[in-house]
Structures are given as C-alpha cells and as structure tokens.
Amino acid sequence: TEELLRKSDKLSVAGQLAAGLAHEIRNPLTSLRGFLQLLQHDLKDKKHYFDIMLSELDRINFIVSEFLVIAKPEAITYKKSDLVTILQSVIALLDTQAVLCNVQLVLEFQSDIPEITCSEMHLKQLFINLIKNAMEAIPKDGQIKLIVSLHGNDQIRVRTQDNGIGIPEERLKQLGEPFYTTKEKGTGLGLMMCFKIVEAHKGTMNIQSQVGYGTTIDVFLPTYTGEHN
Ligand code: ADP
Ligand code: MG
C-alpha cells in the first residue's frame, strides 16, 4: 500500500505541474513554428538549420501532448464499449509496424467478455503505449500477446505479454515515474500516462518482468455496471 500511495502522490504532483505548463508552452510553440516556416521560405539555403529547429519543436510538442493527457483526467468522457473491439483496432493500427520489427502481435480472448465503461480514445492510447514499449523491448524478433479474460465477476484482465529484454527487479519500482527512461530517444512519460489512464478508469495495472525472458503487464478494468464508473 505504501508503494501505491507513493506512486499516486507522484502522479498528482506531476498532473498539477503538467496542467499549468502545457498551456503556457503550447501557445508560444505554435507561433514559433509559424514564424520559422515563414523564415524558411526567405532563407532557402539554410534549409538544414530549419529542419533541425522544426524537428526539435515537434519533439517539444510531442512531449507536451503526452503531458496533457495526464494532466486532465477529468476531461475524459466515458461510454459503454466493447474492449475486444478496441484492442482489435489497436492491433490493426500497429500491425504494419510490428511486421517491420519482426514482431508477431497476437490477440486472445474469451467469448463472453462483458462490456466496460471507458473512454475508447484513452484506452487505445494506453494499449498503444504498452505495445510500443513491448516492441521496443524486443531486439530481434519476438511475440507480443494480448490476452483478455474475465477476472472474478466484475473485472476484465488484459494481459500484455512480451518476450523482450525484460526489466531488472530493482528498476520495477521506478516504472511510471515521470521521465524515467532507459532509451536514448525516450520521454519516460508513456507508462506514467498508462497508470493515469487506468486510474481514471478505476482499474489497476501490475508489471512483472524477468530479465532475458520478458515482461507481463496486467491491466484490470471494472465491467459495465449501468452507472458511471
Ligand atoms: P519510454 O518508452 O519513453 O522510455 P515509458 O514510460 O513508456 O517511457 O517506459 C519507461 C521505461 O520502462 C522504458 O524506458 C523501459 O526501460 C521500461 N519498459 C517499459 N515497458 C517495457 C517492456 N515491455 N519491456 C522492457 N522494458 C520496458
Ligand atoms: Mg514508451
């Protein structure tokens, strides 16, 4: 429980920070981008500099967008949805990329999975993040399995299982901390956003991993009860 409390404290501090910062940063970014494009038109021989500046701007913009999702869980709108359909569309979205990385994406589900109350957009974002992390953890070729099953009477478990590099035990507790990344081009915001989305859906997320064997992430979500989650 102490560990859980610590994590949600971190999330709320980061959320407050993000809410303030994101807006302040976004507006000047948009105007900078516009003026850069105007200048680029006049200084055609300096194209290389502009390419770098524009790509740096886009990177800042990307980081701010990741933050915005975390910052505004109250802006999420919920409706009754079919989780398997959501996962199928996520897999369709990432399949080409997976094939290019020699990764096989597999979805397994029980036939009697009940509906849930959720924001489809945010759940898609959640599983896109988990699958992308899994793909990035697979060095050569491998498999990512999504297994959907009923857990008790009132929860659905989505297990995302990869056979990638795994995560050392001592690093597991850092997952979900803002900016914790082991990747050169990582933001370290993906998992934090995942925890935030799951929390907003009144669910839980567990991460288990073994170095050299792979990582298993369980997301538990409450089934539809007729009232708002
Ligand atoms: P990023 O992907 O930008 O690094 P994330 O918050 O998505 O940020 O992930 C944080 C870190 O957690 C990653 O840098 C990686 O070290 C670790 N991680 C997350 N998912 C996996 C996974 N499936 N297998 C191995 N490591 C993972
Ligand atoms: Mg990530």
Structure description:
It is a single chain. The protein is an alpha+beta fold. Helix content is 51%, strand content 21%. The protein has helices at residues 2-42, 47-71, 83-100, 120-136, 169-172, 190-200; strands spanning 79-81, 103-109, 116-118, 142-151, 155-162, 204-210, 214-222. The protein has a 5-stranded mixed sheet, covered by helices on one side. A two-stranded antiparallel sheet has the order 1-3. A hairpin with a 3-residue loop joins strand 4 and strand 5. The longest helix has 41 residues, at 2-42. The two termini are 23 Å apart. It binds adenosine-5'-diphosphate and magnesium ion (MG). Adenosine-5'-diphosphate is lined by residues 129, 133-134, 137, 162, 164-167, 175, 180-183, 186-192, 215. Adenosine-5'-diphosphate (ADP) is lined by residues 129, 133-134, 137, 162, 164-167, 175, 180-183, 186-192, 215.
Q: How far apart, in Å, are the first and last alpha carbons?
A: 23 Å
| Largest sheet properties | 5 strands, mixed
Average pLDDT rating: 86
Q: Which ligands accompany this protein?
A: adenosine-5'-diphosphate, magnesium ion
Count the strands?
7
Poorly predicted regions: none
Helix/strand class: alpha+beta
- If strands are numbered along the chain, what order do they take across the biggest sheet? 2-4-5-7-6
User: Which series of helices and strands comes N to C?
Assistant: HHEHEEHEEHHEE
Q: With helices defined by DSSP (H or I, 4 residues minimum), what is the helix count? A: 6
Strand content: 15-25%
Tell me, briefly, the overall form.
globular
Based on CA atoms alone, the radius of gyration comes out at 19 Å
Protein name: histidine kinase
Domain Histidine kinase: 20-225
